[in-house]
Specification:
With about 325 residues, the protein is of the alpha/beta class. It has 11 helices and 17 strands. Strands 1, 2, 3, 4, 5, 6, 7, 8, 9, 10, 11 and 12 form a 12-stranded mixed sheet that branches. Strand 11, helix 8 (about 195-205) and strand 12 (about 205-210) form a beta-alpha-beta unit. The relative contact order is 0.15. The structure holds threonylcarbamoyladenylate and magnesium ion (MG). Threonylcarbamoyladenylate binds next to strand 6 and strand 7.
Length: about 325
Amino acid sequence: MTTLRLSAGDIDQAAGIVSSGGLLGIPTETVYGLGANGLNERAVRAIFEAKGRPQDNPLILHVPDESWLERYCEDIPAAAYELSGRFWPGPLTMILKRKDNVPDAVTAGLDTVGMRCPDCAVTRAVIEKAGVPVAAPSGNASGRPSPTTAAAMLEDMDGKIDAMLDDGPCKVGVESTIIDLTVTPPRLLRPGGVTLEELEEVLGEVAVDDAVRRLMAPEEQPKAPGMKYRHYAPKAPVTVVKGDPDMTAGYIAARMGEGSGILCFDEFKGYFRGHPVVTMGPVSDQAEQAREIFEALRAFDHMEVTDIWAQSPSEGGIGLAVSNRLNKAAGFHIIEL
Ligand code: TXA
Ligand code: MG
């Protein structure tokens, strides 16, 4: 198929594609998504096919505001509305008990569903107009870094989707935070733009799922099925070096091999002369690191590198999400100094 290019002025056309069961690339504040009518089983199956996504990995539903929660969820706790009041529209996905009208294809048979209201007026308008929730995973081919521009998404999806709605680069850059509200205490399944510290302010105690900080053994089942897959990975193997940035830069410079590519903070690019270097923003600017991380990982696929060394962002605030994505790209191959 030929993928149609759409922009913010084409909301009616984009909504028409969703209502008629097509596949639409959608902008959000986090990453671009591969959207379809979340109530149409066949359209939802087409998402899995276009991505090459394993069938046991559920999708989240995108809605225009919290009044849509009760259409698709039951036993909604007060905490859900406290969170939506504070963080929606925004980069927070809530896992809630689902109603029977949500197709099994969306939830991979789970009795829960992820609900998200993106901070992107164009996409909320498309959903309103289509009148159905939009199921959307990140718009990358399965296993690849998530796309933060329409062009990055088209690298993976051109010819596989009906249309691509371009609304410029994503302002957060890493996928939404996922909080499971069906357990006590609520559990952070994936770190993202709404930080653990912010969730704790609203919820009090928050448990952090093991899959956030370490590699799951093959027999273990993380609560967010997607967290078990190797992910976000460029083609060359990645090693993350954790510690004080001066020390990690020196450590990498002393060990890099002839074909090594380097992912580093802006301040350190001079350490690695003669090597392909990709920067991810200044040491102190975590929001910039979040915006840069996926494009940086994708950039190595256009370079001749045999392996990649990476400095590691610190883990406070949105840094927990950035380091989680980088660690996953490295298959949790991490050296701690
Ligand atoms: O920012 C985002 O969340 C982006 C944009 C497009 O909205 N979407 C996104 O979707 O990242 P995806 O499918 O790439 O990641 C969703 C994650 C997966 O790890 C999946 O396993 C998990 O959410 N998930 C979905 N439904 C779940 C459920 N009912 N219980 C636990 N985890 C769930
Ligand atoms: Mg994804």
